Amino acid sequence: MSHHLQIKEHESTSKEFIFPVEDEEELNTTILYMHNIYKLIFNGKVGAPVQENLQNGAKVLELCCEDGIWITEVAVEYPNTEFYGVDSNIQNSDNNFNNVTFIEYKLYIWKKNTFLEVLSEIFRVLKPGGWLEVVCTFNTELVYGPTYTRLRNTWDSWLKLQNIDTDLVGNLENYLKQTGKAESVLSRIIDSQIKRGCAFGEFMIEVFLFFYKSARNYLAPFMTISLEEFDDLVNKAKSELSEDNRL
């Protein structure tokens, strides 16, 4: 049975979506890392109760799909469903999306003044009774070493300077309610230990370090230090995570 799969790429100059990685290959690697993290944490690719709809045939849209890792994998499991992916705002797409059953949205980094517009577009194309699945990761009650804490605080400060909500997870339900379109909001939090000594913990530590290395061209100037000094900080942070077993 054939699969209907369409991925659209669009150039966007509005910069509503911010991701501080300049190298395209590094960005794709970061997206692949996050995709695998979500699969491990949520034990699958689709968390919303839409499996029966997808089996019978539906229309699915992934927002910020990048190179389409998620929809490519899910399309194999649900051959009766049409899958579409856009790597920018729905408004920038030349597709007239409508009557979408399920929208998959990996929550990365959005500016405050455009995030509500994005949600408005999502609900415009989502059919009544349809599902929007927003997936994200966040850290809670973790104790870091001084160097990693410095990197983390720098990252948060840089985001705030870009007018980015650093607590989209905590504020997401409020954003959804502001649209006036969400009939109900369900949330599921899965607590996963991130530490040395287990495969998932080791993997997450490498993801954290890879992310900071990839963002060095943004964060080093923001910290008014050289790239070499920034690399030294990342190496020190790695030592802290390894020796103190803080994650």
Automatic annotation (TrEMBL):
The lineage of its organism: Eukaryota, Fungi, Fungi incertae sedis, Mucoromycota, Glomeromycotina. CDD domains: AdoMet_MTases (cd02440). It comes from Cetraspora pellucida. InterPro entries: SAM-dependent_MTases_sf. This is 6694_t:CDS:1.
